[in-house]
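User: Structure tokens for both sequences below?

Assistant:
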Amino acid sequence: MNPLDFTFPLAALLILVFAAGWGVVLSRRFRLSWELWGIGALTFFISQAVHLPFLALVSRLAYPGGPPRGWEPSPAAFFGYAVIVGLLAGLCEEGARYLVLRYWATEARSWRQALMFGAGHGGLEAILVGGLMLVNFLSLLTMRGQDMSAALPSDKLAQVQAFWETPWWAAFLGTWERFWTLPIQVFLAVLVMRAFTQRNSLWLGAAIGWHTLVDAGAVMAVSTWGAVPTEGLVAIFGALSFLGIFLLRETEPLLEEAASPKAQPLERESVPLPPPEATPESLEATRYES
């Protein structure tokens, strides 16, 4: 039995657990509606419906012979390509987040709601990645032990064979990446939300910039160091994003309003009444009350 028979499905299922886990924890901890998670998930879908065709168009126009695959022969060309890839992702995803919050989720204007919104965005991405891993694994599993030389080209056949020779631990690289990518997506949602809570569009620019740095850095790192060190870089970005989530925590507007003296209803000042005058009649009326 190949160890991948166990580790690969497990790695994919863990990704699905991470995707749903953020939503479960946030909904219970902050009593948030899953509707906002769904809006965030739909935002990711909308962003990719724009991002992927736009990326293909830019690649076809700017790199008709194919995009550069590494630093050779031109480091400047590869650096520029990595920045373009990261910038397009940042513009499309953060732009979609901003537009959805501006015109759809108009009542979401708090740090907690930003967490749930971002968890939906990153959660759907993780679900698609984990689901695709399972589908690919099942597809490769059906081909194992069969003579596919007549059905597949030689290069595809070599890829199938290379997959089953992959070390067992390599299956968890995707799980590790999704574990750290989810806090990155949540942090980006917090940055975009601040464009509304602080009424400053520079926060949207910060979200686009951070997204560009993360994606461009990953593109350059995988060609420079390989897959494993790149996942280490993703973990650094994820840890910094996790820290940023708490550093940018804001007091809930509703809590501020409730704590404000202006928000409290006016109450009449209670004035103590004088004790009733003791008379023989009053004493006679209260003698049975004790």
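Moving on to the next sequence.
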Amino acid sequence: MTTRVTPADLRARAKRLFDRDARTWAAAGQSDVVLDAPLHPPTEREALADLEGVRSWVDSWRRVAAEPGIEVEWSVRTWSRVGSQEVPVRAVVRGPDAVARAADDATAWRLLVERLGELRGLVGSDTAVLRSHARTIVDLESADFDRLMAVLTWLRENPESGRLIRELPIRGIHTKWIESRRGLVAALHRAGTGASGLGLREPSPLVRVRVLDPALAFQGLTDVSAPAADLAAMPIRPERVFVFENLATVLAMPKAPRAVAVHGGGHRVDLVALLPWAQTVTYWGDLDSHGFAILNRLRARGVDATSALMDAGTLFDHRDLWGIDPDPNVGVFERLTPAERAALQSLSAEGNVRLEQERIPWSYALARLGLHAATIC
């Protein structure tokens, strides 16, 4: 026995098709969409077993046939005991508008078509970017969509403005608006112009530096956050530069002669490499795969970096303080020393363990950094 297809089944199929493909249809302006559904009408035996149910089923399809956009194909069955009966055998929904109505998503479809149609004039033939960002585009409030169009138009007309976001002469646009939608704006702008960026002037990222010797202070300041370019121009010549992955360690450092400590975790090592007085450093990061990745990156930027507390001895001295790295970095780090590579291999061999910087006792760390009591002012 084959289960009869009901109008509710057809609408459910339309809904699945719409949810899966509507973004593609709207992005590409596609109109040749067809949903073709055999209805599996009953046999005479099945009709006799449930005559009222079959009549109700046939009537439901007569009502559907009156709806625009849904074609119901009928066929006459000549049955010996029931006589000639006209039954629906197939339903065809043609075009994305009709599929959207059948899926009860006509309003959402109209909005999707309208907005992607407007954007298509700015992004050209790159329908992939419209499809991938369609959900975000449709979810925008009307005012925000208008702002998006205004931003894309202005950026297209001013490709290398060199302005800060705060300076953009677009009503309702401010830094948070752009930053919270930067991925969307950048993708659509790139699709329409081929530009790799927005042509805006970005605020200079800040580097946090603690001066451990008052004689090296920045006009009396010993704890400074400033753009890398400004710090690079400062006429200081420290004899020791510590670069630490964690800010808490930078802040905890004691005074030390002719020394500074720099916060250099993650991508900040790129900024450290811009400092002419920080080309020879002592680097201490978390004893995990990511810490070694940062160390490798720092050296790749041309900095002569000697690691501290990133060796197998430190690792196994603190076995009770290990944690598990849920997402280890599996990159190839060609600039590690043999001892560092051995420590990295131990992390993996012990089950992707990690020893976070802040778990190591402070007295142990200071001794390994060469900051004994005699050198601490």
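User: Anything stand out in the second?

Assistant: DSSP finds 16 helices and eleven strands in the chain.
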